[in-house]
């Protein structure tokens, strides 16, 4: 099995064997050019209330074999960015900027020319598999259609064989029988596996995963992430992982792009973003994520307030009304992305103050981190030493809306603390 970013020896054979990796880019494209390059991407939607500027100046370059995580709250422009790349936005959308695949511009191309690229050059895993699968066709027929669109010489028998192999590859039990099932006969997790199988069927160079684990429980989420890693290994593809959950990208991404109010506010490696963030918004997102490796059982530190309206946005930093480090200068102009380290940028004029927190959100979001100790735990010394001094404990009885934590529960580790090593390409 090849590792992500390497190329395999063969393409898909006529016998239906799934190859590992790609031998070349699509014909007519420059294999030496950047895989996917997005430059100053802007998307606007006309509404009765005004022009909604949903995506504002997104820039990123995706290299072969790389996984880029795009994170942010709902409404930050993550999904609209991916739909703009795929050319799937409605006709009313006003898209400007540049999206290049292997050196060729995708913006402005017609649906026929984009159909040549979709699925073969760039494929997409949509957020809701129930709406992205056709309910009146068997899942096998939908996989076979994807294969035969890009390979006209493929026989129906060979396409069916490959469809079964793809379902086996993504972990569908009894794939030979389930290939004749309809989408409604699968669970949510199984439907998502089918969508992943369709996305990887033609061994694309780029897979865009738009919140593929949002509607799934935690156990199934972990299984789907394993399937995504299998897809990367089998196809040699690069991936754009879009999610609002920082924990999802911790073990799979190489770089992370944090979006807020339609624009990037921090870009860096996974280690930079998780352990040394420089943007208060990124720090707040980390503070809202449970940490099993924390020295004390602290409460989460939520970000108060809501994202701004994207219609006629006021000047200044869009995060300023919610930011605990807000000062008058923040309202003067929206800050650009400043270089704060090697390959690390942040859109904030107070990055030095954020740096002092070293990834500990409670250092900055102190007003939202009160009641930091759960019932039955020893209060840390810095909280317990009041006027009388001495160590105390919280009340033994938990509040009515809490459940007493189980005793002797083994430490399962943290999503963040268990992040893979820093070696590029290591997605074990």
TrEMBL record:
It is a peripheral membrane protein. Residues 1-24, 385-428 are annotated as: Disordered. CDD domains: ABC_NikE_OppD_transporters. The keyword ATP-binding applies. One of its GO terms (cellular component) is plasma membrane. InterPro entries: AAA+_ATPase (IPR003593), ABC_Ni/Peptide_Import (IPR050388), ABC_transporter-like_ATP-bd (IPR003439), ABC_transporter-like_CS (IPR017871), Oligopep_ABC_C (IPR013563), P-loop_NTPase (IPR027417). SUPFAM superfamilies: P-loop containing nucleoside triphosphate hydrolases. It is found in: Cell membrane. GO terms for biological process: peptide transport. Residues 36-286 form the ABC transporter domain. PROSITE patterns: ABC_TRANSPORTER_1, ABC_TRANSPORTER_2. Residues 1-17, 385-396 have a biased composition (Low complexity). The keyword Nucleotide-binding applies. Keywords: ATP-binding, Cell membrane, Hydrolase, Membrane, Nucleotide-binding, Transport. Its EC number is 3.6.3.-. GO terms for molecular function: ATP binding; ATP hydrolysis activity. It holds the Pfam family ABC_tran. Belongs to the ABC transporter superfamily. This is Oligopeptide transport protein (ABC superfamily, ATP-binding protein) (Modular protein). It comes from Modestobacter italicus (strain DSM 44449 / CECT 9708 / BC 501).
């Amino acid at each position: 099995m090849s590792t992500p970013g390497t190329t395999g020896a063969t393409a898909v054979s006529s016998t239906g064997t799934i190859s590992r990796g790609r031998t070349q880019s699509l014909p007519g494209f420059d294999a030496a050019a950047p895989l996917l390059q997005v430059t100053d991407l802007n998307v606007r939607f006309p509404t009765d209330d005004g022009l909604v500027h949903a995506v504002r100046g997104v820039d990123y370059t995706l290299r072969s074999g790389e996984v880029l995580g795009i994170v942010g709250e709902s409404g930050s422009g993550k999904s609209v960015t991916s739909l703009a790349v795929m050319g799937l936005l409605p006709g009313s959308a006003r898209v400007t900027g540049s999206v290049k695949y292997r050196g060729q511009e995708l913006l402005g191309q017609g649906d026929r020319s984009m159909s040549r690229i979709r699925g073969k050059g760039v494929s997409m895993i949509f957020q809701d598999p129930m709406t992205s699968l056709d309910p009146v066709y068997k899942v096998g027929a939908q996989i076979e259609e994807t294969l035969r669109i890009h390979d006209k010489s493929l026989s129906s028998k060979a396409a069916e064989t490959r469809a079964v192999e793809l379902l086996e590859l993504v972990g569908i039990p009894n794939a030979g029988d389930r290939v004749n099932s309809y989408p409604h006969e699968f669970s949510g997790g199984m439907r998502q596996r089918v969508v992943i199988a369709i996305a990887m069927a033609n061994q694309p160079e780029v897979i865009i995963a738009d919140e593929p684990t949002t509607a799934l429980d935690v156990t199934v989420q972990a299984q789907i992430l394993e399937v995504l890693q299998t897809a990367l290994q089998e196809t040699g593809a690069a991936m754009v992982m879009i999610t609002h959950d920082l924990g999802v990208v911790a073990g799979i991404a190489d770089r992370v792009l944090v979006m807020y109010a339609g624009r990037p506010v921090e870009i860096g490696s996974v280690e930079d973003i998780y352990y040394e963030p420089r943007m208060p918004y990124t720090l707040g997102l980390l503070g809202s994520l449970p940490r099993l490796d924390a020295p004390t059982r602290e409460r989460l530190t939520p970000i108060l307030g809501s994202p701004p309206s994207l219609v006629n946005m006021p000047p200044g930093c869009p995060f300023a009304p919610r930011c605990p480090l807000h000062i008058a200068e923040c309202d003067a102009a929206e800050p650009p992305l400043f270089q704060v380290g090697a390959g690390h940028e942040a859109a904030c004029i107070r990055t030095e103050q954020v740096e002092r927190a070293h990834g500990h959100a409670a250092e900055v979001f102190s007003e939202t981190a009160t009641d930091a100790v759960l019932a039955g735990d020893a209060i840390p010394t810095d909280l317990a030493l009041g006027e009388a001094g001495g160590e105390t404990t919280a009340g033994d009885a938990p509040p009515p809306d809490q459940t007493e934590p189980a005793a002797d529960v083994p430490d399962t580790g943290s999503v963040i603390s268990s992040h893979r090593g820093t070696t590029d390409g290591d997605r074990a």
